[in-house]
Amino acid sequence: MTAQPVHSADPDPDDIGAMLSGDDRARFWAEYHRAVDAAHEPWGYRKLRAMLAEWRLYAIAAAQPDYAARAQAAITGEGFVDEAEAARVTRWPTSR
Fold this sequence. Notes:
Elements: H1 13-19, H2 22-38, H3 42-62, H4 67-76, H5 83-90
């Protein structure tokens, strides 16, 4: 008996589409169909897999109740640490 993976390695387009709403769903399906058309080439297949992975992550994020507010904060830089705090947190040793 062979072990079967619990989850598919590739995200399912139908699952992604079901997670999205409105304009996002329409953009996803349009991009998906373009990527499928190009997938007969090796580079196109890799691009299709990457596109599905990216849209899956977006769909998960966009499903969060505070997504719109957090996206806007990321765009404007609102709510992030100031430069001094960022420098303190990201300081790396100069020698090993």
